[in-house]
Amino acid sequence: MRAVVLREFGGPEVLRVSEFETPKPGPGEVLVRVKAVGVNRLDVWIRSGKYRISPPHIPGTDVAGVVEEVGDGVGNVAVGDRVVVYPLENCGACEYCMRGEESMCINSRLLGRHMNGGYAEYVKVRADMAFKIPDNVGFREAAATPVNFLTSWHMLFNRARIGPGDRILVVGGGSGIGYAAIELAKLVGATVIATVGDDWKVGKAESIGADYVINRRKEDVHEAVMRITGGEGVDIVFEHAGKDVWPTAIKVLKRGGTLVFAGATSGDEVKVSIRQLYWNQLNLHGSFLGNRSEFRKILRLLAEGRIRPVIDSIYSLEDASEAHRRMEASKHFGKIVLEP
Length: 340
Prior knowledge:
By secondary structure, the chain is α/β, with parallel strands linked by helices.
């Protein structure tokens, strides 16, 4: 099969298409013919060597396609089914899995990081990771769903406990999880303030529901948030950019507010005042992907048209390096997708 095979760490130029052995599904596994695969910041970190893997390796966590072959004992899907892949392979036996918190599984493996992923014509996954795509949803939209909406849902509802009337600052409203957070927060009646890095992204963020949009390159985010909230600050900050954003993120929180975070693009070591945290009784919640029950809810919302994946651009496998350059330059709004 054709696949983007990472054989060394480096810049986007190391992403090259070559022939790779087509995997064979074993008992309880399925082979998926990939129709669309999302590009994520995780892929950049793997490619650059920030997350160490053992080459040769195929990245790609967000996969949608058609079941090509099934192994023995598979009953939940059949050959020809259109499926989207829940990206975590979990053990089902640890204390976290037993209480439905698969994202905290101590034995989990992430598709595209701990095992070969979807930058390929075919990918092999455990059958219980394959969920049927709603009939009215395309492959591109399905591939834009797992990491973006699952991560955002878990951050907002499981960790931050967002509710009607909450004010939330969404950092990076044009990113994959950022735009998903805007859509999900509006579902429950929250007031959304989003940051973006370009003027052309302001209208995009407003079109999907953001009540206020701040161009962080032109305005001081702290001053803008305080002006919008009448000096009160926000109930929740949705954060995934890392070190450069944390000082402002903490400053804009009202007393008792929550910082929920799931990324470290600008760095992962921050300096915070413990006194400021306890004096203002702030809550810090780390978050990672989400659980199967949450994924099922997201697919239902997708089928009902209550959430709408935003596709930024489509690239071929051969142009995966260009897709990565677009992401690293923050030229995108929404999901970048590869199609074999």
